[in-house]
Amino acid sequence: MKELVEVIAKALVDYPDEVVVTETENDKSIVVELRVAQSDMGKVIGKQGRIAKAIRSVVKAAASKSEKKVIVDIMQ
Q1: Strands across the sheet with 20-25, in order?
Q2: Could you count the other beta carbons within 10 Å of the beta carbon of residue 74?
Q3: Which has the closest alpha carbon to 49: 72, 17, 18?
Q4: How far, in Å, are 48, 61, 74 from residue 4 at the CA level?
C-alpha cells in the first residue's frame, strides 16, 4: 500500500522529493501516513476533498484481498 500511495502522490505534486509515506500495521488495520510539502497540500486534497477521497478509494480497492482495513491519513 505504501508504494501505491507514494506513486499517486508523486504524480500529483510539484515537489515529489518531499513526499514521505510511512506505513504502520497492527492487528486489524494498516495506517498509511502521507506527508507532502505545504504548498502541495491542496493538490493532494483537492476541491472538497475529492482527490483525497479518490486516493482512499483506490487504496481500499487494492487492499480488498487482505482482511485488514487500510486507513490513509494526509498529514502536514
Answers
A1: 20-25, 29-35, 69-75
A2: 19
A3: 72
A4: 22, 11, 14
Contacts of residue 49, defined as CB under 8 A and 6 or more positions apart, other chains included, come to: none
> Which pLDDT tens digit goes with each residue over 3-12?
999 999 999 9
What values do phi and psi take at 5, rounded to 5? -65, -40
Give the relative orientation of helices 50-62 and 2-12 as an angle to the nearest 10 degrees: 150
pLDDT tens for residues 47-73? 999 999 999 999 999 998 888 899 999
Domains of the chain (ranges; CATH) run 2-75 (3.30.300.20)
Q: Which three cell numbers stand for residue 53?
A: 477521497
